[in-house]
Request: fold
Amino acid sequence: MQESSQFPVQVQQPVQARPTDSWLQKFAVKHSIIISDATGQTFVPVTSFTHNPDWLSTMWLATRKDYLDQDIFHVDETGLFFRLTPEKTMTCLGEHCFGGKLAGERVTVVLGTNLTGSEKRHLLVVGKCSDPQLLASIEGWPLKYASNNKSWMTNEIFESELRDWDSELQLKNRRILLLVGDCSAHPRVSNLKNIRLVYLPYHVASVRQPMGRGIFRSFKTQYRRLLILQLIDCFEKNAATSITLIDALRMLYKAWLRVPVEMIKNCFLQTGLMKSGSEGSVFEEFEDDIPLSLWLSNHSFTQFDAWKETIDWYVEADSELQTSEEPEEKDMKIEEPAAEG
Reply:
């Protein structure tokens, strides 16, 4: 299980961040459940958002007309409890984590890829730890690490990442279109030379964003597998099973590499963002992307049999972690998405 930990991370210093959405409500929507509280008050899940039904066929086609699929990228964030083990699954379901002690147990991971899945952007990981020893030990790794008190994406981190990316593209004489969600952590960034930045309106993003259609789940599945393998290795060697942030960064890097390219492409096909002539099946399944319970069974890993009933929940137990400040209702865009550059 030991591998070389020498790999490039550019480090940004701590910046402050601040407060969403209910895991329980989303779970209810997904499974058509009506929820009541202790007083008997009923909460009926909201099943749809008001959005422009012609966005894909009008605004989007006009926006993307000068770009090939491989030159259109999407970036989004997901929260992750990097030390979470299967037996703790039920204690973390629906956790938002607005800071405090739990902020040191989680990270925000920024994933970026083009529509074809052929080009994955290096990971950007935001954690709480700003220990100089940690920063020195990860120097040179193929990912970036930033920190703040709540382990969230912030305006400063977002803008810094985009300006670095824009500089890289200028050196390559390449222009891209970049889709991001319209939220408080994604500020308007002016004077980008080679990135056309397009902000998906809040309501459209809720329906159309591809990361939630399987990319986040696949990434977390790969990470949980690597974590389980490390735990098993520790059990067999009768060694301590603590997972450090260094361990987590190494596994996050490997997990992103293992997300199937064709699965990413199919997620984008489902959104309608790709050109209609793009090939692929939106119903295709991938051998390396099977449920965690089946993966454990296939490899005869019996150490986690006690939690087999909840092991598949384990993958996305942290799916409701806060990754940035909650946008105000007045900031949620419903009209044509703004574009920069």
Residues 1-50, 96-100, 328-338 have pLDDT under 50 and may be disordered. Residues 215-236 form the longest helix (22 residues). DSSP finds eleven helices and ten strands in the chain.
